[in-house]
What does this fold into?
Amino acid sequence: MSNDAEAVRRLDLLDAVNRRRAAGDYAGIRVLLEDDSPETLLGEAALGYWLAYARRRLGETEAALELAEALEEPCLRDADRQLHRKRTNLEAMALFDLGRVDDASERWSDLLGLATAAGDNPMVAHAANNLGVVATLRGQADESLAHHARALAAYERLADGRGIALTHQNLGIAYRERGLPREAEAHFRAAARAATPGSDEDVLARAQEERAVLFLMRGDPSLAEATAERARHRLAKVADRAGVAECLRVIGLARLVAGRRRDAQSPLREALRLAQEVGAALLEAETLEALAAVEPNEAEALHARADEIFGGLGAQGWGASVRERVAGFVEMAERGASP
It folds into this structure.
């Protein structure tokens, strides 16, 4: 194939990728690009980046990280310096998914410096938002809110609806963990308003799932299960396996609170399987804590495994908070939850 023909093919591929990305069709992006040779993907770094991005969104986290790391040198050589910053963010997200929180935090801190110096507001927003998530996980409430406030301001300047929605979702989680459910609810609602139906189905569903946890904390397991079930269907349509697992965990907890302990086992076991499959370490540990409440004969071993994962993530405080919350759900079940 001539150089001109190859250039036209690359442009056509990027155009096709952009159309699928706008539609949230990450499986389509993978199909489009996965047959290209490693030389092609590394030689045309933008194509390699979008394949790695799609793989992560589809729960193929280790493959996404491997490709993102291989793309570091090609991206550094590329004239488009923003591509290097986008690749760094993707690498950090994959590292975080796999439980390598310290490594992810280091990448995002580097990215924040690079993006600030370059005036790259989208990457400033992404880095700040993700550093806020790390701070929440570590129990650093003030740092979390500061990072998320910086991210929200940047996304609003960019009129980036998806970014605004994601940041409101993270702020909702941060406020919920501080014991401020009213503020949390306001941010989850804001996330749903900012997201675009059709292209941001995953964000809309994740906001639903987080609201379901709030409904559980208020003692309404029926509403929590119904809300998490709607979110699960949405996430299944976009092949977000980690998101589906999150919803199944909440469904299991809702059944626990409703006094249906045996019925809770199946969704929790499926959530654990999916979390392990996609390499979502934090979700795996959270699900183990939930399983310990419905499978008391296995509780000691399940708690021990969860402690091991939380410790490896440097998230012992988060783990203690999760265990305390599950214990609260058990108490609700024992006294009979009521809306």
User: Anything to note?
Assistant: The CA atoms of residues 182 and 196 lie 24 Å apart. The chain has a mean pLDDT of 91. The longest helix spans residues 3-22. The chain has 19 helices and no strands.
